[in-house]
Design a protein that fits this description.
The relative contact order is 0.18. The protein has a single domain, classed as dinb family like domain (Four Helix Bundle (Hemerythrin (Met), subunit A)), CATH 1.20.120.450. The protein is built from six helices and no strands. By secondary structure, the chain is mainly α. The protein is globular and about 45 Å long.
Amino acid sequence: MSSPATDRPEPSTTANERDMLDGWLDFHRATLAWKCEGLTDEQLRRTPLAPSELSLMGLVRHMSEVERYWFREITLGEDLEDLYCTEDDPDAEFHVSGQDTWAEAEQVWREEIERARQASAGRSLDEVSIGRSDRGGEQFNLRWVYTHMIEEYARHNGHADLLREQIDGATGE
């Protein structure tokens, strides 16, 4: 793929814990953006790995939901509506249509990333979440949220690698 791989922020190898977590999360966010770069809306909506319904646009929409959920709903306790999901279609973020555009999906994702940064700014990694998850009402400290988000991006970036290679043959770390 093109040059953005070199523009991804390399996480420090000697940073303190908070900077290390921020660095790895930003690296994985940039990796997903890189996997989507240079493709048309039609290519980003494509689901080339049947029977899977995964598309690059769907992954970005999913990560918008995940950023929103963990940093705002769980960490801050905000009561927010889902961006794409509904009671009738709990996986709606993955069900992109011909009307869905990359411009809209990317804008929402970037906005949720910025709101996630604001939600975690100045907070201790030991601070426990205000909101309750649908996982039995558990609470999570911010360190857990960061670690989970890095894991979530890393897993989905693996999916993005496979999708991108099927779409146009592009590969890269």
